[in-house]
């Protein structure tokens, strides 16, 4: 990280921490350079929009209690202070004072930047570790002359090259990555579990203002044997974590691990798959997974009751594994994969399947949603997958995902992969709990989608009064960045499928119809050659290069001007009081007609039908039709009209793939919320009921929302 980047990140943190009691370290090369560097640093800060109060050099017989008084007596957004205790006795006494008064840091009026030398920092880490844990971050300052060069002079118009004059820094999306709790209800175990995990909750609460979380990722092994009583503990912990961190359930993402499997239920089930064909069938057909899903029933019931009925939880497959989150203008796609479908014993390595068809389905959804940043969650490392798919799944992930988070091995590991396909950053979290006598840890992270970077801050359990502390061993060479490390994420070009899985199958059929000699040449040209000795003969090798080549012709035949004889004229005017009912039926018929004439038959999915329906809706309604999301988002799915239109010319539509359970009830609740933000006289719920599409015509009925509002229910 360059000095400019480091200072830009510090400035962004200071802006975010305004008004909160936050301690930051600014590290200078030596005590001799301390004051000169502090003055240059102060000049740089005062040249920014921040209001800075310089508290000067700290008197070494005063500590956090006096600092809090000084910050409350001065009106500013940022406070600056330096300290240079004389070794060795001065450092010892100063460290003891800081440790004793560390609780007064809660009373700071705003963020305090403590400028100290590298030697002082090391001494405080050794002699005042409890005080040091209160520091949200440590930044290494460049030399005074570098700081001065970055500070614009009063008589010049600073250009874009100066650190202080850049465009506003990108506010990062902050996350917590935890894994492997192995919670058990036995009394002795519970005491030790509470000791470790309570300390983690205390860390989250203390760090909430300085490092407010947006997302929490949990990558498996919440329980130890897949039993319901274990998940009572797990959900209690996650419920408290949500309260402490203020992260809502919709932004908690969880996948299962091998210890979330009830091995008694899975005793007689198939231990693995033996071919690519079996894998495609398993991940494409829900019935094939029905018995294996029963091994995870305890996990599913508990997490569904905590996080909601429509969550992926690693149990969704393909497009249904993906959830979309919009945070501060950035669109994130989170794919929750279950690598434990075939987990059953301690010899699982090489037997597990993630499913290339599963990853491919997620890829299409991520591209269609226009995600700025894509995250994959799984429990196991790629090396544990079956050799038939291991090579191809990892390389497909290089094309699709920016960040891969996992657990399982109880050992932190990070790596950055850059290839001609793209690449990703892989982060393996250590166990959050494996016994207080063992190493326990977690990662805090920052995602910057625009800057294409991920920054990791590791924490470890150490016991004592402040049980969780910054882990200086994970990135020992990143001391200048406060023992954090920033990974650059390769750029990616995700090509929208627009038609989802049905087009994928059409593309596969076309590729497989190519003569074998030409097929291999085409694969080489598109960089989709299979592993040595394997033929180019399945959907596994039909990548986006081929798919995009075939997409235009297929989409033309399915979408453009597709009308049945009974459908009448094109545009429906919004001045018609029944415009929404007419538009829903006409769009549904066009979508069904497109499916019927495509020749894709049973390969059509609910997502395909949704895309066709939305495309047809845009074609038949006069005026703006905005497709904001597809089925799995907190945003409205489709808006008709604009804010300038009168309510009687506007409509809100919710799309749903699932037709079981309380899906209509939950959709009506969603509609009520959306209609508050976008007042409209018309509203509808659309069900992509594939089971009914073959023999029944689209139909509309009138139902009521919880407040008595009339809502149209379209069954496609």
Automatic annotation (TrEMBL):
<feature type="region of interest" description="Disordered">
    <location>
        <begin position="146"/>
        <end position="167"/>
    </location>
</feature>
<protein>
    <recommendedName>
        <fullName>Calcineurin-like phosphoesterase domain-containing protein</fullName>
    </recommendedName>
</protein>
<dbReference type="Pfam" id="PF00149">
    <property type="entry name" value="Metallophos"/>
</dbReference>
<dbReference type="InterPro" id="IPR050884">
    <property type="entry name" value="CNP_phosphodiesterase-III"/>
</dbReference>
<dbReference type="GO" id="GO:0046872">
    <property type="term" value="F:metal ion binding"/>
</dbReference>
<keyword id="KW-0408">Iron</keyword>
<dbReference type="InterPro" id="IPR004843">
    <property type="entry name" value="Calcineurin-like_PHP"/>
</dbReference>
<keyword id="KW-0479">Metal-binding</keyword>
<dbReference type="GO" id="GO:0016787">
    <property type="term" value="F:hydrolase activity"/>
</dbReference>
<feature type="domain" description="Calcineurin-like phosphoesterase">
    <location>
        <begin position="173"/>
        <end position="411"/>
    </location>
</feature>
<keyword id="KW-0378">Hydrolase</keyword>
<dbReference type="InterPro" id="IPR029052">
    <property type="entry name" value="Metallo-depent_PP-like"/>
</dbReference>
<comment type="similarity">
    <text>Belongs to the cyclic nucleotide phosphodiesterase class-III family.</text>
</comment>
